[in-house]
Amino acid sequence: MSSETIRNRYFMPKPQLSPSDLRYLTDVDFVDHVAVVAIDPRRPEAILGVARWIRDPARPDRAEAAFVVVDRAQGTGVGSALAIALTDLAIARGVTTLTGSMLSDNRQSEGMFRRMGGELTVHRQGITNEVVTTLPRAEDRLRRLAHNRRMRPRRRSDHGVRRPAHVAPRAAA
């Protein structure tokens, strides 16, 4: 990942993860700490992105979410897919609100919170933004996602990755 991607995720340069960082990032129980990983189907060992939420022990209906997508996969829809999967897992586990912190110039992360289909509030606080998204009820989720047309990937010819401007929806079998 580029230094900018690392800075956007950790708010500072981070040349390597410490043992406590590794423990924190891999101690996933799928109840209070949920993580979703996107891999390259042609190279399953290559991680394209990770999204996670960690439940607030004082308020079990709230969790803090975070995302990171490798540079070559940014703008291809990987982040949107991770946000949607993470939201579905949160709703299924009784989380009604996801929060997040990001650098104020990190519009991609703010966009991923918008794609979750809930009501989003952004508190701009100088160099950082705090976001709070109230998740929709499970039965309203698909309707809200269908209404939100911002999920389509944008074209990324600058990195050699091109995606269609429009992907036709497929009917469920």
Structure notes:
With 173 residues, the chain is of the alpha+beta class. It has a single domain (3-149), classed as Aminopeptidase. It has five helices and six strands, in the order ααβββαβαββα. Strands 1-2-3-4-6-5 form a six-stranded mixed sheet, sandwiched between helices. Strand 5 and strand 6 (128-134) form a beta hairpin. The chain starts with a helix and ends in a 26-residue tail after the last helix. Residues 149-173 have low confidence and may be disordered.
Essential attributes:
173 residues; 31% strand; alpha+beta
Helix content: 25-40%
| Main sheet strand line-up | 1-2-3-4-6-5
SSE pattern, N- to C-terminal: HHEEEHEHEEH
Query: Which stretches are low in confidence, meaning pLDDT under 50 for 5 or more residues running?
Result: 149-173
Major beta sheet summary: 6 strands, mixed
Average pLDDT taken over every residue: 76
Count of helix runs:
5
Radius of gyration: 16 Å
Architecture per CATH nomenclature, i.e. the level-2 architecture: 3-Layer(aba) Sandwich
CATH class: Alpha Beta
Write down the domain tally: 1
Termini gap:
38 Å
Question: And the CATH topology?
Answer: Aminopeptidase
Can you describe this structure in just a few lines?
The protein is built from 5 helices and 6 strands, in the order ααβββαβαββα.
Summarize the helices and strands and which ones pair or pack:
Elements (H helix, E strand, L loop, with lengths): L2 H8 L8 H8 L6 E8 L2 E14 L2 E11 L8 H15 L4 E7 L3 H8 L4 E7 L2 E7 L3 H10 L26
